[in-house]
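User: Let's play a game. I give you a shape written as tokens, and you guess the letters that built it. Ready? Here's round one.
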């Protein structure tokens, strides 16, 4: 006799499903001693997007082996909630968030750096490089590629839904509850290294005459050496930060 389990996915996990399976319970045929993890990924949902599974009302981990008539409820990662007395399927969310982004998210990387978030990005990263760096440095993978998050080595990742950089930032900001972590103008938007204050005299020979005349406070990137100051562009960038995060900068 064919064995079946009934699955129901919640909230943004439905983004990975065909329309006929969204926000409804649907049957899945159980293949041998299939685990709930294999069944979830067979539906197209990356395991890193899941933080809670209930089977017949009780929390289980990914290794649970499905039984006939099981009622399975699958919930997304609860980054902003404190859930107790359930089996979490990932380690504790990274409270000092650091990111690595795939090739499609260059503008998002710059926005994250502007707001002070450690965000690695290169146009020549291979998928396996992203996965290995994320594992070694405990970084959250941000990607538009669902398949990248399906790799077993990936423990923290977010599939970015929107194709618009500003909306992508809001996805990450809201999903990972980053409001208390905003620290703008502390990282280089070009290379991600930290900025440090520098005496004007030390860099005077690198400044245009007008800049040297009208400005006295400067920062320098500790990585690429780019120089930053509060020029005419600064007010625009402050407004960008406020629009993205709600944080006002004096």
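Assistant: Ready! My guess for every position:
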């Amino acid at each position: 006799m064919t064995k079946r389990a009934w699955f129901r996915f919640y909230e943004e996990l439905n983004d990975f499903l065909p329309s006929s399976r969204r926000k409804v319970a649907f049957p899945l045929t159980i293949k041998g001693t299939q685990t709930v993890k294999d069944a979830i990924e067979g539906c197209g949902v990356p395991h890193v997007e899941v933080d809670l599974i209930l089977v017949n009302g009780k929390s289980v981990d990914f290794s649970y082996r499905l039984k006939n008539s099981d009622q399975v409820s699958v919930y997304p990662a609860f980054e902003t909630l404190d859930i107790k007395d359930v089996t979490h399927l990932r380690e504790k969310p990274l409270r000092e968030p650091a990111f690595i982004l795939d090739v499609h998210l260059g503008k998002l990387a710059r926005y994250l750096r502007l707001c002070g978030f450690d965000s690695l990005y290169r146009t020549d990263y291979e998928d396996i490089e992203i996965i290995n760096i994320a594992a070694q440095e405990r970084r959250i993978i941000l990607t538009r590629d669902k398949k990248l998050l399906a790799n077993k080595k990936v423990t923290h990742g977010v599939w970015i839904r929107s194709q618009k950089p500003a909306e992508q930032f809001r996805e990450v900001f809201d999903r990972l509850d980053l409001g208390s972590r905003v620290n703008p103008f502390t990282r280089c938007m070009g290379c991600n290294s930290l900025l440090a204050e520098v005496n004007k005299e030390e860099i005077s020979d690198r400044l245009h005459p007008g800049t040297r005349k009208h400005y006295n406070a400067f920062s320098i990137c500790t990585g690429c050496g780019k120089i930053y100051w509060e020029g005419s562009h600064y007010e625009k960038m402050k407004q960008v930060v406020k629009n993205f995060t709600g944080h006002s900068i004096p």
